[in-house]
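I am writing to request your help with a piece of structural work I have in hand. A protein sequence and the structure tokens that stand for its backbone fold form the material at issue. Please examine both parts with care and let me know of anything in them that strikes you as inconsistent. The record follows directly beneath this note.
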Amino acid sequence: MEEEILKVRMLGGFSMVYQEKTLVFDRNYISKSTQLLQILFLHLEKGIAKERLLEELYGRDDVENRNGSLNNTIFRLRKQLEAAGLPEGKYFYLKKGIYYWDSAIPVETDLSVFEKKLEESRKETDEDKKTELLKETCALYTGELLPNMTGENWAAVANIHYRDLYFEALEELCTILKEKRYFETIYQLTTTAAGMYPFEEWQLWRIDSLIAMNRYQDAMAIYKEATKHFFDDLGLPPSEEMLERFRLMSDRGGTGGDQERPSGKRRAEGGLLLLFSEFYRHLSCDRPHDGAERDLCLYHALHADGQKWRDPYGNRPEQGGFGGLKSCDLQFSQARRFLHQIQRKPVSGHAFRDDSGELPGALGQN
């Protein structure tokens, strides 16, 4: 008879399957008994010292008798495991100050399979086999470790550890696939990663893979989505790496449509304004206010040290960017008029000119 294994999922959620049945455990996802079980599963191979277990379970609680509380939790956990459908037993035991899971009921966690596949990929010298192992490793990572437990220190530390292992595997896999020009696979893998972690690193991989497949409009859509997220949620402008992709997509027609693209001096004139107009639109459309927030945003942007700014084409003020501005000295009345033009007109070199064809105020000075 084949040995029955308790299969435990900890990535993207927590569940247990035994004899092909999902066990119904404690409905309180953050109870001490649930945490005790999960900590034991995290330390299946080497066990966990009692003192460390006490600290992880009760370190932030005002508990007078930690040992007594742990004994009560152990008693409750054993009753819950038996009621859930596991064979009667002790399930775990204490030996020389270390708690171990009882091997009488073998356990396989998705974490252990994930780590095993990653270790195999590290040792594999055949590139095709390494690629397949890395694909399997990445497929096993279905979400953050125990998302309901991220408020607990022990879970947060473990979560970062496994997230970094996933990043390591995905980065290496994408590098191999890039050399083989499997850009569609890169796009699919990094889209999955960006869904869990919308970090710039994965957005750049997505954009690069689409550019390599000549899908410039799709790449531009991701650029706009990513920069909107960075600005709205984090208050960050696009990085230099993002702006490099913007310039590349613009040069190759990735802005979409048949509008004439500014060139030469007009390109430089519109650079900063194009970037700022995107931010301004987010403030105008997504955040209800009376206009003061937008004006304050503009005021600080235009009176900042010009050395810190680059337009979407990488120009600094002294290089002729921003319409040749040597200093951002727009007056408030001119700024408000300019912003009304941004809201009404399409974003192009012409959108920043007033009715006479000139850029407003200092923006028209060369």
Observations:
- Residues 256-275, 277-295, 302-366 have pLDDT under 50 and may be disordered.
- The longest strand covers residues 6-9.
- Residues 145 and 161 are 9 Å apart (CA to CA).
- Strands lie at 6-9, 15-18, 21-22, 48-49, 92-95, 98-101, 107-109.
